[in-house]
Amino acid sequence: MIERENKKNNSLPLEHTGPSPSYSLYSPTAWTVYLGKILLSRSSPLEEVARVLRIHIHQYYDDESHDYDLALLKLDRPASMQLAGHARPACLPPPTHQLDPGLLCWVTGWGALREGGRSSNVLQKVDVHLVSEEACVRSYGYLVTPRMLCAGYRDGGKDACQGDSGGPLVCQEPSGRWFLAGVVSWGKGCGRPDYYGVYTRITRLTDWIKQVISSP
Questions:
Q1: Buried b / exposed e across 162-183, counting CB within 10 Å, b at 16+?
Q2: Per residue in 33-45, pLDDT tens?
Q3: Structure pTM?
Q4: Domains and CATH numbers, the chain
Q5: Taking every annotated instance into account, which residue ranges of this chain make up the domain Peptidase S1 (predicted)?
Q6: 81: how many CB neighbours lie within 10 A of its CB?
Q7: Are 200 and 182 in contact (CB under 8 A)?
Q8: Rounded Cα gap, residues 20 and 69, in angstroms
């Protein structure tokens, strides 16, 4: 992540504990979820560890176009109230939620601090502005689908980067409530001028998320 500061996060850091072949990535036993984690190098009394029972990958996901780039993990238990003052969930917006260009949002992760650089040991944050679909299309053309959302700055300088994929893009409503607007997906480089970060647009997949959550 480019030009960011330390911040606590409500995302779920993952550790791959299985073998390297790609088919193992879809096995729940290959993953461990950490709740409330800040430092990757060591554990904290405030963080929790959960096992993954099931992985739900969107049935239309395309690994070349990154369309429908979203997966849900079913954990073996809910997060305890011990995390209440340390990490909180972001609300799921309804499909009709308006995402206005210019809205200031935040993206967090442990990714590279510069393009081609090393990942961070400390959880980082950076502020980005939502941009219009027209501006997003001007950057990437036909690669942008209705399930995608762009955020960042035309002059570059602030962006998610390699290793931040899957991290949350959260925005705050006037009421103070935080909601999940997007999930880090792809982009050209990190913080380059005229190339915004591209995120999975959650409002276009809210119905699928609710369907998965309500399934046995």
A1: bbbbbbbbbbeeeeeebbbbbb
A2: 888 888 989 888 8
A3: 0.88
A4: 24-87+206-214 (2.40.10.10), 103-205 (2.40.10.10)
A5: 1-214
A6: 7
A7: yes
A8: 21
